Amino acid sequence: MNFIVLGAGAIGCYVGGRLAAQGQNVCLVGRPHAMEPLAREGLTVTDLDGYRALVPAAQLRLAGTLAEAAPGPDTVILLCVKSGATESAARELAAACAPGTPVISLQNGVDNVARIAAQAPALKALAGMVPYNVVLRGAQVHRATAGAIQLQRDAATEPVAAVFNAAGLATALPEDIRAVQWGKLLLNLNNPVNALSNLPLREELLDRDCRQVFAALQTEALGAMARAGITPAQVTAVSPQMLPKVMRLPNWLFTRLAKRMLQIDASARSSMWDDLEAGRVTEIDAICGAVVRLAAQHGAQAPLSRRMCELLSGPRLRLTGVEMKRALGL
Ligand SMILES: NC(=O)C1=CN([C@@H]2O[C@H](COP(=O)(O)OP(=O)(O)OC[C@H]3O[C@@H](n4cnc5c(N)ncnc54)[C@H](OP(=O)(O)O)[C@@H]3O)[C@@H](O)[C@H]2O)C=CC1
Ligand SMILES: CC(C)(CO)C(=O)C(=O)O
Questions:
Q1: Mean pLDDT for the chain?
Q2: How far apart are CA 80 and CA 215, in angstroms?
Q3: CB of 10 sitting under 6 A from ligand 1
């Protein structure tokens, strides 16, 4: 099996790096700004449990385009671009890959697979979910929280899950990946809160006003999911229904009950903060936009998620939890 990671950023370098460190045949396809440090220094992969590996530059397969990566008949694509780049990446894949090539989306959001399939109908688009936070700094990539990757159960993903597990990437094949994606989306509703707060994740989660905004977004999203008949899967120690309740707790109780959730490296931030910081378009449409669309499809509204879309779409804002509550009318 050959892996091509399309989009060598935080997730692509972490997953691709662990596979490469274990001797798998992996090609990382990325932008020059991402490839240059790797070509110079190799890729160092670490995690919060003490794992550390260096894949020397000479052992890394790096490519600027899919054509250079030369996908063959036994290639599996790991799609790791941000949601805003899905369509263009899928068109590149359609042009470069043989029909039936598995394309596993390791992206956040709930509609990337459908968007890949629309642009590349001959390929086999499959869903994945990465639960943890990954930080990329130049040639070093670090997993900052814990969890297991979830891949859509399919004949094409069974051998992939086996290879991932052998490489130390804990991976499961859940029955209902759609429920898992909606469960993850409930957590990703913190991404805009974190991005606007301009705080590291841990600090932001220790701010009750920020948590109250997060909880309000979750409650609204759970309402939209209930109307749509979607039962989100539990992807943390806490059930989806309990999540907003836990978020609203006062600090003294939250810090006791949410110990596992707070096991985050002090410097870790959400992937949406990364985008704001780099001046890139964020994934707000894939997260809050998805809640707004789901509610609308079922005759309801999601004004809080809609407002978050507005706050993330203009000039960069930095808001305290109190200011966010005011901006959302909470
Ligand atoms: N980071 C995290 O902790 C987590 C992220 N996720 C999800 O994983 C997905 C990837 O996120 P993340 O790794 O943070 O994103 P990054 O922005 O770090 O990485 C994506 C990379 O892909 C590049 N890229 C985009 N289009 C192409 C293309 N056509 N060819 C080659 N390279 C391309 C981007 O370059 P450029 O920007 O210059 O176009 C960027 O360097 C997202 O959906 C995110 O929500 C999920 C869990 C945790
Ligand atoms: C892991 C988590 C929930 C928060 O970092 C994430 O998915 C992201 O940053 O996009």
A1: 97
A2: 28
A3: yes
Residues linked to residue 137 through DSSP beta bridges, in sequence order: 140
DSSP β-bridge partners for residue 11: none
- The b-or-e profile of 149-175 (16+ CB within 10 A means b, else e) is bbbbebebbeebbebbeebebebebbe
Instruction: Output the CA 82–ligand 1 centroid distance in Å.
Output: 4
245-292 residue pLDDT tens: 999 999 999 999 998 889 898 989 999 999 999 999 999 999 999 999
Ligand lying nearest the CA atom of residue 119: 1
Give me the domains of the chain, ranges plus CATH numbers: 2-174 (3.40.50.720), 180-327 (1.10.1040.10)
pLDDT in tens, 158-196: 999 999 999 999 999 999 999 999 999 999 999 999 999
Ligand 1 atom, smallest distance to 144 CA? 3
- Ligand approaching nearest to the C-alpha of 14: 1
Using CA positions, which residue lies closest to atom 9 of ligand 2? Answer: 270
Beta bridge partners of 44: 54, 140
pTM > 0.95: yes
Q: Across the chain, how many H-helices and E-strands are there?
A: 16, 12
Tokens 């809080």 belong to residue: 304
Name the token pair of 263: 């096991």
